[in-house]
Amino acid sequence: MALYAVQFVLTILPLITLPWLARVLGPAELGVVVFVQSFSFLLGMLIEFGFQLSATRRIAAERGDRHAMGETVAGVLGAKLLLIAVAVAVSVVVLVSVPAFRDDPKLLGFGLAMALLQGLLPIWFFTGLEQLRLTAAIDVTVRLLTAVAIIVLVREEGQGLRVLWIWTAGAAISVVILNALMYRRVPFLRPTSHLRSLAFKEGWALFVATAAVSLYTSGTVFMLGLVVSSAQLALFSAAERVVRAAIRATGPISGAAYPRISHLLSQGRADRAQRLSSLVLLAVTALAAVASALMLLLAPVVIDILFGDQFEESVGILRILALLLPPVAVGATLSGLWLITRRMDRISTTIAVASGLVNLVATPLVGSLSGPTGVAWTLVAIETGAAISLVVVIRARSLMPTRAQVLGR
């Protein structure tokens, strides 16, 4: 319920702030803003390095041992400080190679700042402890303040940089509060090279998987922005943001179950973990199917109410992207609750990398030939293929639950 409170806000607020920005800034300037945000997501993923899963899993197993948790925190912090240096180096390369950033380096500065703050959020720590109400309250409060600031302070064209300032300030507040609360629960330990190496070792496979997934999720907007106009990118992004908001509706169920299943497996209670995983899969699949059907039916109304006449071309894109919901929900649940909890990270990583590489090539190519509509169909095909691959792999390893396990018999 705590995670659903956050996801409700994450779903509703973009449906308020994004239409506001679409009408105030217009498609072209909005396209620039979401391009910068997409870049920050990709760079932030580098700093997070899969710790959202690997460190969460470790904290879930160490709960109750304050010193052990402190060592895990120290290792993750040491690793992230090193990754921040890598992110800065990557930004220098991007500054030279991407025309939009070369023409206006301030945009790159905002993207880098938001990425660093995103990477330093210790959500993984509180998720491992299953202290979800605390992080939910902080996240909801900060995002509400951010939304209010956007509506109050962004009133006319030419204020796109003001949006980036507000997003950056909101992320900074969350980082300070959550890190302060984390160090009230664990001792501050020096991040030694041993602890840092251990964090990298455990997070490596999951980082590769997370990075690959980003190539066909948040990275799609960035890659498409390299080959289409800012206005076309805004049309695609408007539909994509609505669909991603709907996808979040399935996230809290599996997100809350992940640390619980990791804990059950560490205690040798595999049957109980299998049953809980199965119930979660049934729930998220049903929820995603209903959301997809509603979006297909109501796409014209949704686009008209949220974005207005200038975004009419987003209706077709939204209907295509609505097909993403079931395969994304199934794929994320199978990967997280069946493979990663059992430390079969490499299998999940292999499928994610294959999907990401396909999209890395396909999005710029299809985007330059067919525009946003072609890219939307490409995403649907990639996500469907990934979900099918996960089902095949899990069945081959006899991990699919029996009817008796689902019913608890």
Q: What can you see in these coordinates?
A:
The protein is mainly alpha-helical and 409 residues long. It folds into 2 domains: 1-200, no CATH class; 216-409, no CATH class. Helices cover 84% and strands 0% of the residues. The protein is built from 18 helices and no strands. It has helices at 2-12, 14-48, 51-62, 66-97, 99-103, 105-119, 123-128, 132-153, 160-182, 193-215, 218-225, 230-247, 251-266, 270-307, 314-321, 325-340, 345-396, 403-407. Helix 4 (66-97) packs across helix 10 (193-215), helix 6 packs parallel to helix 9 (160-182) and helix 14 (270-307) runs antiparallel to helix 16. The longest helix is centred in the C-terminal third of the chain and has 52 residues, at 345-396. The model has no long low-confidence stretch (mean pLDDT 85).
Question: What attributes does this structure have?
Answer:
409 residues, mainly alpha, 2 domains, 18 helices, 84% helix, globular
Number of helical elements: 18
State the distance separating the first and last CA atoms: 27 Å
Please state roughly what percent of the residues sit in beta strands, choosing from under 5%, 5-15%, 15-25%, 25-35%, 35-45% or over 45%: under 5%
* Average pLDDT over all residues: 85
Give the biggest sheet.
none
H and E string: HHHHHHHHHHHHHHHHHH
Q: Radius of gyration, Cα only, in angstroms? A: 21 Å
Gross morphology: globular
Describe, in short, the structure shown.
The protein has helices spanning 2-12, 14-48, 51-62, 66-97, 99-103, 105-119, 123-128, 132-153, 160-182, 193-215, 218-225, 230-247, 251-266, 270-307, 314-321, 325-340, 345-396, 403-407. The chain is built from 18 helices and no strands.
